[in-house]
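User: ok so my PI wants both of these folded by tonight, can you help

Assistant: No problem, let's get them done. Here's the first:
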Amino acid sequence: MTDLSDLYQEVILDHNKKPRNKGEIENPTGVAEGHNPLCGDQIKLTVLVKDGLVEEVRFTGCGCAISTASASIMTEAVKGKKLEEVESLFHKFHDMVTEETDKSSFDEMDSLSVFSGVREYPARVKCATLAWHTLREALEGGKKVASTE
């Protein structure tokens, strides 16, 4: 394993063991649930949006290390961002874990770049993207359960 992949693995394990922003927001503006039937990951995400900014985002649920770490890191990455920025980040993240992309674009992804290696394991892509799909559903009104299928 390279030093970089060792670091990435360490970050994912840290966020899995000590997830950030775990819990629920008391009066959220959006709520959604997500499920990855392939792996069994389940997530509930609450978000508070004010004046077009993601002010707070939290999650509960259970899942594998990649799913939990992705939710934890995602909540940190989107806090304080405009809704348009969140949507752009969703697309960049999704492209990073699903397509062959220029690695120099990972620099702008900050801590999210730890998931760049997930692309090599197609079944794990669903684990990494579950929180993102659930966030989008919460921002759109949470009418259905977000799924990776």
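One down. Here's the second:
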Amino acid sequence: MTAPYGPFVVVAENIRSLHNVGAIFRSADGAGVSWIFLGGYSGHPPRPEISKVALGADEWLPWQHVWEVAPLLDELAGHGYQIVALERTAGAIPLHQFQPRWPLALIIGNEVEGLGDAVLRRAHHLVSIPMRGRKESLNVSVAFGIAAFRLAEALPEKL
């Protein structure tokens, strides 16, 4: 099996804020993500709101818009990608305890609703960021940045 999109991809489902999309591009570039899939109604370049926050990452980081995320995940799994959903849900593994396998697709979801059931069913693993304060979750772009950099620590130099 081959990893046609590189070793580390992100799949963003229904991200409503263009500023969050821009921040995801910027953090993805910094963490070494090889490809971004923007799914459902997620905004996508070219948009000035995205470019303002991405600071150019939206111009060089490969990306693709897909309306349906579930078939994309099936395709990625068929190419050997480990499908990992970042979601605060029962049974999720704390991010710091998760051992990634490459190639890997990290899925992030809507700022309010999270990930849809069809997407969660396709995930090989559910991971979450432990919260220590009163809030139950972080902004999606912040959570993505934490997860992407944490996972990237285990990314081999050469795959």
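Strands lie at 8-13, 35-39, 63-66, 82-86, 93-94, 104-108, 125-128. The first helix runs from residue 18 to 31. Good luck tonight!
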